[in-house]
Amino acid sequence: MFENIFESSKEIDRLAVQNRLLKEYEEPVCLRLLEGRQGVRVLDVGCNNGSKTAARFSRSGVSTVIGLEYNQTLADRAQEAYGDDRFSFYRCDVEQPEFPDQLRGWMAERQVEAFDLIHLSFVLMHLKDPNKLLGILKPFLAPAGRLLIVEANDSSSVLSPDPEGLLTEFLDILAQDPFSGDRYFGGKVPKLLEEQGYSPVKLECQTIDARGPERGKKEDLFDMFFSYLPEDVQILLEQEPDHPRPVQWKRWIQQKFERLQQLVLAEGTSISMGLNIFTAGRSEDVPLRVQRLTEKYLDQITQLCGQCVGENLYSKEELASAIGQPDQCFELLLTPEDEIGGYCWSRLTPLDAAAADAKLPPGLLRERLGDVPMVARIQSVGTSPAFRTLGLCRELLERALDWFREMEASAAICTAWKRGGFVPLASNLLKCGFQHLTDSRMVWYGRKDLVCPCCEGRCKCGAAIYYKVLKGKWAT
After folding, report:
1. Number of Cα atoms under 13 Å in the Cβ half of residue 373
2. At 290, is the pLDDT very low, low, confident or very high (cuts 50, 70, 90)?
C-alpha cells in the first residue's frame, strides 16, 4: 500500500512540483560542490522516478550516476527514461543486510571505486535506523567527497498570521501520519553525522519561504508540504475504518483544511516550511602519508602484491630491486601505524621491453606514442582490502603522472588486468587522461608459478592496454 502511494499520478505531479521548488535551494549547493570538477561520481539514494536525478546531475563534469530506489516500478521508470552510459538506476532496500554487497556489485559494473557526491533527499526520515545507513555509506565516499542531505524539519515551520493555530494543528497530525516519516528529522542530522565521523557538517538551508504576493510559490509550497494529507488519511481509513485517529483527522480535514490552504495562499501572509539541507565530508580516521619503498616495508608490500596481482608475480627480491633506483618510483600510502593502504610502482622502460611485457608488437605502441626509446610505465598499483573504497587508486595514479612529468617522459602506458570482461583500474585510468589502446590475451600465462586471484591453475587472464601522451624530452 505504501509503495502504491508513490506510483499514483497525483504523487508524480506533486514530485514534479517539489523538484521545481527545491531547485531554487538545492541546485546552488550542487553547483558549488561540482564546480570545476571532472569525472565526478554520484550516488543518489532515493532517486524516485529519476527526473530530479537527471536534472541535477546532467552536467559535463559528472561521469557516472547510480540511482537507488526502493519502489520497483519507479526504479524501472527511471532506467527506461534516463538510463544510459552515464546514468543507471537500481531497485534496492538500503535497510537490508545485503545492501552494501549489492552496491559494491553495481559499482563494479560501472567501474566506480568511490563516490565524490552521495545525495539523499527525504530518505533518512523514513528509515527505521537512519544512523546505520550513514555508517554504511561512509566507506563509499571518496576522501574529498561530500554528502548532500535534504530533510524536513517542522520545528522551523511558521505561518504568520495564523490566529487559529491551523498550522500547528496540521503539523501535529502530520507528525503522527505513518506515511510522512519523521517530520522533525532535519534537526537530528548534525548529531548523527558527527557520531558517524562526518566533518565538517554545514547547514546550507533551513527553510523554504514564501511571502506576501508570491502566490505561485505558495501554491507549489502547499502542494509539496500539505496536499498529500487527505490522501494519506483516506488510505488509513480504508485499512482501518474504525480507528479513532484517522477518523478524527478526516473530520479536521473536512472542517479546516480548506481554510488552512486559503490562509497559506493569502497575500497578507508569510510562510516558512522547515527544509534542512546539509553537506558534510568524511573526517579521515586514518590519515595516510606518502613514503617511498624501503627495506622496512618489503615483507608487507610482498604480501600485498600477492593479494592484489597474484602470488609470485613479483618476488621479494624483484620488489627490493626497485629501492633507490633513479628510473623507478615505488610509492606507498601508509597509516600512522605503518600499515600500507596502497602502493604504485612506476618505472621508465625501453619501448620494446614494454611492448614485449604487454604481448604487443612494438610497432603498435610506436604508432600511438611516437618513435621514442623510453616510455613511462605503471608497473603495478593496488590497495589493501580495508582501504578499497577511499579513492586511493586515483590518487596513486595522479602521483605517478607527477613523477612521469618530473622525469620528462613523453608517453605513459599501463597494462591493466582484465578480469573476465571487467578492468578494475579502467575508470581511474580514464579519469587520469589515459586512453584505451587495445586488449592483449593471456598476458601472464608464461608465469608458471603465478597463483592468479581468479584463475584455477595457470593464469589465463588478459589485459587492457592504456596509454597517455605527455610532453617530455623524447616527444616526437
Report:
1. 3
2. very high
The answer on pLDDT for 5 being more than 50 is: no
CA 164/CA 162 separation, integer angstroms: 6
Those residues with Cβ within 8 angstroms of residue 339's Cβ, 6 or more apart along the chain or in another chain: 300, 384
Q: Is 126 left (phi over 0), alpha (psi -120 to 50) or beta?
A: alpha
- Whether residue 373 is preceded by a cis peptide bond, meaning omega within 30 degrees of 0, is no
The residues with which 198 forms a beta bridge, in sequence order, are: 282
DSSP code of residue 95: T
- C-alpha 443/C-alpha 356 separation (Å) is 10
Residue 339 CA: distances (Å) to CA of 141, 161, 343, 396, 453: 21, 62, 11, 16, 22
Pair 179, 238: CB distance under 8 Å: no
Cα 392 to Cα 387: distance, rounded to the nearest angstrom: 8
Can you tell me the distance from the alpha carbon of 312 to that of 318, in angstroms, rounded to the nearest whole number? 10
Any idea which residue has 565538517 for its cell? 200
pTM of the model: 0.63
Q: What is the Cα–Cα distance from 463 to 209, expressed in whole angstroms? A: 56
Q: Measure the CA–CA gap between 2 and 125, rounded to whole angstroms.
A: 15
Rounded to the nearest angstrom, the gap between the alpha carbon of residue 299 and the centroid of all alpha carbons in its chain is 34
Note whether 212 and 287 are within 8 A (CB).
Answer: no
Is 289-469 in the same CATH topology as 2-157+181-216+264-280?
Answer: no
**23, 54 in Cβ contact below 8 A?**
no
Q: Where are the domains of the chain?
A: 2-157+181-216+264-280, 289-469
Alpha-carbon distance 341 to 363, whole Å?
37
Over residues 201-207, the mean pLDDT reads: 90
- d(Cα 476, Cα 471) in Å, to the nearest integer? 9
The answer to whether 185 and 131 have CB atoms below 8 angstroms apart is no
Residue 196: its H or E element:
none
Helix, coil or strand: residue 129: coil
Number of alpha helices (DSSP H) and beta strands (DSSP E) in the chain: 18, 15
Q: Which residues contact 456 (CB under 8 A, 6 or more apart)?
A: none
**Kind and range of the H or E run holding 381:** strand 374-383
Residue 469 burial (CB count, 10 A): 15
Are 365 and 375 in contact by the 8 Å Cβ rule? The answer is yes
Three cell numbers, residue 188: 537530528
Fold for 289-469, please state it.
Aminopeptidase (3.40.630)
Cβ-Cβ contacts under 8 Å for 324 (sequence gap 6 or more): none
> Do the Cβ atoms of 47 and 68 come closer than 8 Å?
yes
Residue 283: is its pLDDT beyond 80? Answer: no
Evaluate whether the domain defined by 2-157+181-216+264-280 bears CATH number 3.40.50.150: yes
State how far the alpha carbon of 66 is from the alpha carbons of 79, 132, 307, in Å: 10, 20, 29
Q: What number is the average pLDDT over the span 180-202?
A: 91
